[in-house]
Amino acid sequence: MTNKLLISAAATIAALTFSSTAFASPVCTAQPQSKWLTPAKMKSKIAKMGFKSIKVFQVSGSCYEIYAINKDGRRAEVYFNPVTGAVVQNNVD
């Protein structure tokens, strides 16, 4: 009975560990926020990339993160390097 309990507890801890890292935002920059593009400049860059209907624009860790519609009309969650404006991670539905 004790071995089953230990195995169950270990499996639960492993599942919680993996699920929490799966939802963590990527590391986009180590630069201080004083070096970041302003939100207005970043929003302009994002619009030039073809993203529309930006529903969320936020700071997420060391990234700018948006929820928007991409140029193909698909929903996207995108993380940007806030210093260069480059896409770091692009999750499309």
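^ that was protein a. below is b, sequence first then the tokens
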Amino acid sequence: MLARIRGFTLVEMLVTLTLISIIASMAFPLIQLDQKRRQERELKDALIQIRTALDNYKQAVDEGRIYMSADSSGYPKTLTDLVDGVPDLKDIKGRKIYFLRRIPSDPFVPDQTSGAESWALRSYASPADAPEAGDDVYDIRSKSKKTALDGTRYDTW
């Protein structure tokens, strides 16, 4: 008497693979949505971090802790000034004031640009409706023209 070999039939295997592929195809859009939400949160956090550092720099200038020339707006010349630090005029030892440890990158800009190069800059002299770089850094925005989940463009945040 021959023993019957137990195992899966071809039909059972195909049904199983079909079910797995259907479940995976439903999960893929959710994974993409989660990734976009994460990138948007990173962008918001980076914008808050850099804008807070710019405000703190301006406050230090207003308090007389940082040298400001007569024709200056009181904002840093470059974003790297926030990381490199500036001499504190009220510190007897002449230590520097640092506003950021590093410049965060824009998560929606390609990887070849990082840090300060990933941001579009606005100077104090440029109008809000037509922001342009200039002699100082008054504000930053994303260079990305992509649309966010809420329907706005990232470069308007």
